[in-house]
Amino acid sequence: MSEKNTDFIRRIIDEDLAAGKYPDGLVTRFPPEPNGYLHVGHAKSICLNFGIAEAYANSVCNLRFDDTNPGKENVEYVDSIREDVKWLGFDPGDRVYFASDYFERLYAFAEQLIKDGKAYVCGLSADDIRRTRGTLTEPGTPSPDRNRPAEENLDLFRRMRAGEFADGTYILRAKIDMASPTLCLRDPAIYRIRHESHHRTGDKWCIYPMYDFAHPLSDAIEGVTHSLCTLEFANNRPLYDWFVEQLTDPPRPKQTEFARLNLTYTVLSKRKLSRLVSEGFVSGWDDPRMPTIAGIRRRGVPPGALRNFCDLIGIAKKESLVDVALLEYAVREQLNKTAPRRMAVIHPLKVVIENYPEGEGEEMTAVNNPEDPDAGTRMVPFSRELYIEADDFMEEPPKKFFRLAPGREVRLRYAYFIKCESVIKDASGNIVELRCTYDPATRGGDAPDGRKVKATLHWVSARHAVAAEVRLYDRLFLKENPSDDEGRDFTEFLNPDSLQPLFPCFLEPALTQAAPCRAFQFERLGYFCADAKDATPDRPVFNRTVTLRDTWAR
Ligand code: ATP
Ligand code: MG
Ligand code: MG
């Protein structure tokens, strides 16, 4: 029995197991095509497939690269996919397979079909094949080659393999039923000629199997019991079944479809994401604004948060558009418990404490994580000159503004009360510095005479501060569903302000040790992590993972 929240797929499995099916356990697979980086939609599929293998006794999940399309696929994508699956916390162990490793067996299956009179070599052009396929109401027209004798088909097919023909001259088609009400059964293509190098098999092959043929048979070769895929494959299920029934013995794999994940304000399609990369709208597949696993990781999202998100959305049979705020909620939930707190000022305003001795300083004890007593404390340097957040000060504060203002006293977190005595401006009237005084009796944050302040500000000692670039991110698209394109190109809906770099920002010195991708809570500002790529020793770069404010309404 599965322990996790039960979805319709696990319910089917539970019933099957109760009926004595699958005595040897379950085999699932995650079958990416290595033609791009994985995105959060793939994370949903990974969590489902690997999650089922973890939940049921004697069960395993294969990572299978569906690499039957030379040209679009490459080793960089293969490597990134392996890394992303591992990062999410799943380990396929030695169960990593490539459909291209089955090319010889798939070819033998195709010859088998030809010998059985169930496949033929067709000389129609791709256009003609489309035209003669018929419609939902009209049957298709048989190809003139449909009744070519098996020996002739075999000879032609072998010559296709031998490289005698140019791309598009012939294809191998299954001979099923040109009048079938199920369109995918109208003599679908199973092999095409492609004189193109493959990232694993090189120039060994110039014919390649179609997805609809390679996929079910790869499942069968691997002994997959449950072939879980997204709804767009539902129409092709009769063809999936036809191939495994013609060519393999029971027990056969069974395909079950579930709804793909769609997220608001982004696109989850490798083709579209690949355009964002190649046309330079983002810095790469791992740009922290991308919904790719690599982008999300670089942004500072921990793998557990992504897995929790996948649990929250569940598995359904109907497509829906999930609010990206739910992902952000899952990230905050996790980071609130785990992220160490630090102080950083991203819009700095200088504060000089006039009555604090010049050249001196001290260290304040700061709590690393109030949610986690084991996280301990650290020392934060304090001195006469500090930075506070510019918007924590207002010269003429409106009624509800309780932070710093002329003549007003506030608390500096873990330090003292300070009072603003005067404001220094530049020639154009911009505030450049505040002159304040502090009360030495308030060290640690409370006044012995019991007087109260209404605000506590974060701060960084100017002399000790680390200057860094901080990158604020907003949604990549302005439109809730950019794929619903209204006839316009989805790139027209990109948010021009999705990246806002700030420099210099000032960080407390402990942040120089921040490991890339590991998020911290910058107090009062949000969660941030050191960037894995663009940081240099003299210019650290931090990415905002998420803000603190939750917009997810349950
Ligand atoms: P895309 O549609 O983004 O190009 P794909 O479906 O072509 O992706 P594959 O590499 O073929 O990507 O997919 C690997 C597996 O991940 C498939 O089983 C597919 O159904 C699943 N998958 C892809 N996108 C999603 C999604 N948005 N939600 C859930 N599962 C998905
Ligand atoms: Mg695909
Ligand atoms: Mg797809």
What does this entry look like structurally?
- Among the domains are: 8-258, Rossmann fold; 342-465, Ribosomal Protein L25, Chain P (Beta Barrel), CATH 2.40.240.
- The protein is an alpha/beta fold and 554 residues long.
- A hairpin with a 5-residue loop joins β19 (417-425) and β20.
- It contains 12 helices and 27 strands.
- Adenosine-5'-triphosphate is lined by residues 31-33, 41-42, 44-45, 229-230, 260-261, 268-271.
- GO terms for molecular function: ATP binding; glutamine-tRNA ligase activity.
Give the tags.
Ribosomal Protein L25, Chain P, Rossmann fold, binds adenosine-5'-triphosphate, binds magnesium ion, elongated, seven-stranded mixed beta sheet, alpha/beta, 554 residues, single chain
- Largest sheet, strands/sense/barrel: 7 strands, mixed
Low-confidence stretches: none
Strand content: 15-25%
Computed structural class: alpha/beta
Shape: elongated
Give the strand order, joined by hyphens, for the main sheet: 12-25-26-27-23-24-13
CATH class call of the domain at 8-258: Alpha Beta
CATH architecture of the domain at 8-258: 3-Layer(aba) Sandwich
Count of runs of 4 or more consecutive helical residues? 12
Bound molecules: adenosine-5'-triphosphate, magnesium ion
Q: Could you name the CATH homologous superfamily of the domain at 8-258?
A: HUPs
Distance, first to last CA: 29 Å
The radius of gyration computed from the alpha-carbon positions, rounded to a whole number of angstroms, is 31 Å
Overall average residue pLDDT = 96
CATH fold node name of the domain at 8-258: Rossmann fold
- By DSSP, the count of extended strands is 27
